[in-house]
Specification:
By secondary structure, this protein is α+β, with helices and mostly antiparallel strands. Helices cover about 45% and strands about 10% of the residues. The longest helix has 25 residues.
Length: about 425
């Protein structure tokens, strides 16, 4: 049976789906090799072109039959076949342009297909925050190939200026927050550059495409070196213990005792806490590894006193369902204000732990292993960084430093 017809408008309208297996049905045109009408099981009709280019057979969709005429389809088919004869795959070029899409679409692919596959969850979360705060408004609707270096440079300059915006706090209330600045603008620029570079490496951009972020200089950054000083610890301790939220109190104390990252603590589950053995395991950390560290006796005591929430696996439960707490930003702001340490960031506590341990004589490799930094491979030849014994001695030393600082302050001021 010849399934070909000399296609006309009337014949195309009269075509009906007749297969019983649900697969696509194609009726080919007798007057032009390669042109056909494809019909789906639900009756949708489209003109298609079958062609061969560089030894590969392809079928391209030309357009819906209720929108385009047979003459228009034949014109498109002639053009497509002419390009194929020259070794040009016109469908691949069209697919590439469609794949490029907008910067928002590129960003989504970069996060879903690269960052979430090869990076840690926290990395994806941080990048998404940069996108919403700095990039989305300016670039989301623009096509990737239309973004210019001058435009990126102008945006980076604006993003580098601090500004006040309204955001929702932990309690759902709107609050003013300062955003922008040299550091965050640099991180956003680097993120956008990486996303576009990934697309170039994937081969989805033209071979002569130049990343518009190239040539845009980063702001000068002064490394942050704020450390919680031992003589400031008693005041901070008093403010922590006075805070009404037991979860916030425990969170900050654990940050001081362990030096763990914010998200490592927020996502800690009770299944990964062994109070009998006095240790916790942080799962799938920023470096995509699990890390087990010992707990000081005071940290164990804090965790034993922390209420469990039914059907919620997290040590720091969220407000609803089985989720974990999103952040402790508001509580930390209240604590540091009460302590008179408004210059102290939560991440400074982690840096402080490393500094204290360094001052106590531990090596940078040992500290890096405890805190979950990437360490020099050669250092592992002569020191067993993963040893829980080594970590236990460091945690014990850390707890001793904290107690020593608190005792010294009490001797000077018994009412502190």
């Amino acid at each position: 049976m010849d399934d070909r017809l000399v296609l006309t408008q009337a014949k195309v309208r009269a075509l009906r789906y007749s297969r019983s297996d649900g697969r696509l049905q194609i009726t080919w045109d007798k007057s032009m090799v390669g042109l056909g009408v494809r019909i789906t099981a639900n009756g949708a009709k489209s003109f298609v072109l079958r062609y061969r280019v560089l030894g590969r057979q392809r079928v391209a969709t030309l357009g819906a039959t209720h929108i385009h005429s047979v003459d228009k389809a034949r014109s498109w088919a002639r053009g497509g076949l002419a390009q194929a004869d020259k070794g040009i795959d016109f469908q691949a070029a069209a697919e590439q342009q469609k794949a490029l899409g907008t910067v928002a679409q590129l960003w989504r692919r970069y996060i879903d297909e690269h960052v979430k596959v090869h990076g840690a969850e926290r990395t994806a979360e941080d990048l998404e925050s940069l996108w919403r705060t700095h990039l989305e408004k300016t670039f989301a609707s623009k096509r990737v190939t239309e973004v210019t270096t001058a435009e990126v440079r102008s945006w980076h300059r604006r993003a580098s200026e601090r500004r006040i915006v309204s955001v929702k706090g932990d309690d759902g209330e709107e609050r003013e927050k300062s955003i922008g600045g040299a550091y965050s603008a640099n991180r956003a620029l680097q993120a956008l550059r990486a996303a576009i570079n990934w697309q170039i490496a994937e081969g989805s951009l033209p071979t002569d495409f130049r990343n518009p972020c190239v040539g845009v200089g980063l702001n000068h950054e002064k490394p942050r070196d704020v450390i919680l000083q031992p003589n400031e610890l008693p005041t901070l301790a008093k403010a922590i213990d006075a805070h009404p939220d037991i979860y916030a109190r425990t969170f900050v104390w654990l940050a001081i005792y362990t030096g763990a990252r914010r998200n490592e603590l927020l996502k800690l589950q009770w299944d990964n806490v062994d109070l009998g053995a006095k240790r916790v395991t942080f799962v799938d950390t920023k470096n995509r590894t699990d890390r087990t560290i010992p707990l000081a006796p005071d940290a164990v005591r804090l965790l034993k006193a922390l209420p469990h929430v039914d059907d919620n696996p997290y040590v720091f439960p969220g407000r609803w369902g089985r989720s974990h707490r999103i952040n402790v930003t508001d509580a930390w702001q209240e604590i540091r204000k009460a302590a008179g340490l408004t210059h102290l960031h939560l991440h400074d506590v982690r840096r402080s732990v490393g500094s204290w341990l360094g001052a106590a004589g531990h090596t940078s490799q040992q500290i890096g292993e405890l805190l979950g930094h990437r360490s020099d491979v050669t250092s592992k030849v002569y020191i067993k960084l993963g040893s829980l014994d080594v970590k236990q001695s460091m945690i014990t030393a850390q707890a001793g430093l904290i107690k020593s600082a608190l005792r010294r302050r009490r001797r000077v001021n018994p009412n502190a």
